[in-house]
Fold LacI family DNA-binding transcriptional regulator.
Amino acid sequence: MKDIARRAGVSESAVSFALNDRPGVSDITRDRVRRVAEQLGWRPSTAARALSGEGAATVGLVVARPAGTLGVDSFFLQLISGIQEVLAERQLGLLFQVVEDVTAECAVYRRWWAEHRVDGVLVVDPRTDDPRPELLAELGLPGVVTGGVPDPGRPQRPGLSTVWADDAGAMASVVGHLHALGHRRVVHIAGLPGLAHTERRVRTLRAEAERRGLTEVRSVTTDYSDAEGAAVTRRVLGAEAPPTALVYDNDVMAVAGVAAAASLGFAVPADVSVVAWEDSALCRMVHPWLTALSRDTVSFGRTAARELLGLLDDGPAGTVQVPLPRLIERESTAAARTP
């Protein structure tokens, strides 16, 4: 409201009257205010609540992933549970939307800002070349990036906090476990390319393999779905020299991979060991139970929500590292088979 008043050369009360079509201003002033509001992207139909100073009492979350993969993704279900738990304590709502890509996600942020639909946002799936932090700074929309590793060479952006986990350390623990079991041919069935955490896991796998002298280690990206997880599993196990260990970036792909391996006559773990990145009930419903990286994702969501509430209470932006995911060794990993 202050920006509109300043540009239009009128008082804030005049802006309120004009945008809410109330008497008290001339038609000329009303038209000028509305033109300025339109230039700034303001939507008069939803501005009344913000003009009253009440705020939206809502936090936004946009996920740019294939919608079909979210219904079975335990990570997002648990993350949202933690977020909602904290928001409920403050009687705040969560506005959730699924979009096709980051461009569409940015458009949603612009619309929410223009309509004053949310007071702040939780940003997931940081990209290697991510336009969202700059956009949020431009809009003045507080946000918390979940999963983004802080850049020590870049100053903290005001109004933008980060909550992150050490994906590199987690991948190093997986490679160390498989190497100790004698595995030398490892395929990492990764998630979406372009995601910062996917790239960190791929880089760490490559670096750890090089450090340990492993030459037959590689990553293959997917869309996180069970269908692609199974398809890639069949493809890599059908090679002339198939891997002796498979590392999946989520539990759904790992379970699908076990079934795909069985369909080709590969027994887990006698012929191929399997590790799932996200531990969940699914990992304990398949036979054998899956070795998996475990973390408290609900707590991750709580932490992200609390950081955002801190920003909404005019607190400083910050960076919070959550505990390192812990490798739970179960029956799906064993010593590599000998030729």
